[in-house]
Structure of Enoyl-CoA hydratase-related protein:
Amino acid sequence: MSSKPVSFERQDALLTVTLNSPDNGNALSTTMVHGLVECFEGLAYDDSVRVVILRAEGKHFCSGLDLKDPSMSPAQRTPAGLWAIQTSIARIYLAMRRCPQPIVTALHGAACGGGFSLALAADLRVASTDLRMNAAYLNIGLTGCDMGSSYFLPRLVNASIASQLLLTGEFIQAQRAFDLGLLARVVAAEDLDQAAQEYAQTMLRAAPMGLRLTKEALNYALDTPGLEAAMAMENRHQSLLALSDDAREAIHAFREKRVPNFTGN
């Protein structure tokens, strides 16, 4: 299936989502927002997709909000009109966290504002050496806390680094982001898609339910009140999956020194 400015490619259980509006730096237009919302909200009901790669064509990953899109700047700047725009974009990031499939994001060039939040909302991030990211919201007269940035950043790095980036709008480059643990790998531009594929293929070798429940447990653990609550979910997940056909297959494969053949059952 394919539609601009977001295109899609399926390869068995892997879905590659491509931001495909390079002429405007893959800025978040109304059409792009709708495409991303429809994609990630729909994945919650699609068991045939197990892993997602989010990437972009052109010089930049995503330059942020498309300020030239008339729909993004209503003629009458009313609370209701602006609220509708704000919440429509916010649905992307909520859907990315809610969908059970791990999301690997391949980042390059600029990832600003809403593009920065796309990176933060992913489960795993790889980047080319030319990546630069910032919370650009502050630079257009708004608060630096937008599209989940105040939630994601303190959890992915720490409160001090989050404060620095959100209160200044300054760019963070690929190497520093890697040093802080925000990126899994930094590679040459020509190796970026391959790096994302390698992580995706590693995940695809896992038992399907095990992979989905790992993301679920991580999501809940981020906001859990303590260790006991986190372990209660882990105990339930492990007890459930221990009864699965895939768990039995994994044991047989280990004993027979072969690759397991998981079915998702």
